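=== Discrete structure encoding ===
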Amino acid sequence: RLPCWHPSNMAATLPVEVIAHIMRFLSVGDRKASALVNRQWYEASLDPILQTNTVFHLLTPFTSGSTVRSFGLRKSPNLVLNDMDGSSRSKEIIEKACQHLGQHLHSLSLKGSDITEGTFMAIVPHCGNLRRLDLSLCNSLFLSGNLLKKASHLQAAKKALANVQDLDLSSLRHLSDCTFNRLVTVMPHVEKLSLAGCTISYEFNPYPAGSKICASTSVLTFLNIRAYLEQQGKKLTSLNLSKTGLSGSPLGELAEVHGLAIQALNIAGNRDLTDQDVLALVKHQTSLTSLDVGMCGELTSQTVLHIQTYLPQMQYLNFAKCRHMKDLAASKFYTLPCLQYISFAECPQISSKALTAGLCVKPMTHLVSVCLAHCTLVRDEFVEMLAKAIPNLQELDLTSCLAITDKSVHAIAAFLSGLKHLSIAWCKRITDYGIVGLEKPTDEVGETAVCELSGGRFSHNFGTIGFFTPPSAAMKNVCKITQEEALVLQDRRGAGVGAGLHRLAGLRVLDLSMCQQLSDLGITCAMRFRELVSLKLNMCPELTDHSLVGIATNVPSLEELSVSQCHQVTDDGVTEVVKRLHRLTLLDISCNVRLTNRTLAAISKYCHCLHKLDVSLNDQMSHDALDRVQYHLPHLVSLQSRLV
């Protein structure tokens, strides 16, 4: 018999309340794993406090009636029913799910589902406490134009949906003034509205002059939306009009709506907007704290100056793909002391000097996320200054910042201990010494590094022109750590010193794709993350099975792994990964020519939680093996198998 202090006995004797309290300090993945210990721990995981942020993603073809009935015990406030088909089985599952969760349900997503008016009206009466409703991409629901047309349906929806505050109507091809008016009538307390990607008529007016009724059944007009904003302006706090073809004149009219004081506005992807249009906006909407103008290609640095002048309380700014932004845009961000998120992704003219002046000279205590992906002028000096100036940073994206080296990685590891998301993909100058925290030995250029260009014939005759002799593969020098250095690294870790990525204990997302100088030993030594959930190592040519074994051993919480185009990976390595990492929900092993049906057999046997799998361009795999994977993994949502 085991002693009372043995972990097995302790797990069985702890009170449910104590177990539930312990679970409050665990991540979602750890909580799901601990719920499988025994029946008592499972019941503890159903504590209402633990279910507050739980989201159920329901797959109707594989959901049993008993599973749906158990939803009532969980009391989860969030339900996702995305991409449901129009079958009677799906309709039945949707109705039962809403029936059992209805009294607790605060958020319901039907995004992309092929549902009809009848199905929608069957679930609405069960959702009396709903706060958020997502009907984006539900084109079949709006196709006929009869949604809420009957007086009985209108009354039932008005009673059930009266508390909805967040309404998402994005990407609806058949949304018209008539159906829009019916929806907002039954939801009088909407505070957040999204019409992203909808076809909105800004210039065309189908109504007679002076008409106060906008009820077209075929078109959604800005005239009608403006009338709604005039009515709802005092309540509305967030508006999304991205990718709707919004131009300057309608934006000016929107900004001048009496009583409208929105806090968050998304107008990304409206390419005709100019600096003057944004100026008119910020002059009138002085309560804005979040503004997304990504992909508005005509905007320049003047837009940033207007924001700094009129909106000093700004917290969220996205200028991604605004390619005309220059140093002036980034050099005075210290005038926005409340800034929490900033993105200059794909703004190639922003330099390190301007970023240093704007973000590092004066303290930015609230800043938690910085995205500088594809900003090719970013240098090590700025990254080092940023890490020292903003130690509370949680997200940093330096994808394709080609000039940064190991110095940047050392600074990130040394000063950003609270970092949760880090992307240094396509930073080709980063080596093993950066990720493990060792000083790189001094480069010595020897005679072997000189490229001999003899042998080519050159003349004015294009028929006999010669070519340079291509450099040999041996000349592509990869800077690797040695076994002796790996032992030194182990001793330094034991002494608690070093500036490797292992110091980022709370890191949850890491992208090292296309860091071609990372070696097998370097990756193995660097992967020491207990909380890491997502890891990308695509196109790392030195990655082998040895690295995968190290990842499977030292990254136990991993849920998403991408090792596409790592040509030295074999069946043995992937098998070890799927054996040990039981939480995997996404696995990308595409373009690995050595993988065979043995890998698919291992995935079928061990990956019971897998939702997405990519095995494209693996020509040694067969369709029969893929069919067996789908048979053994009924919860697999996406299987990419191009050219298999």
Q: What stands out?
A: The chain has 26 helices and 22 strands. The two ends are 54 Å apart (CA to CA).
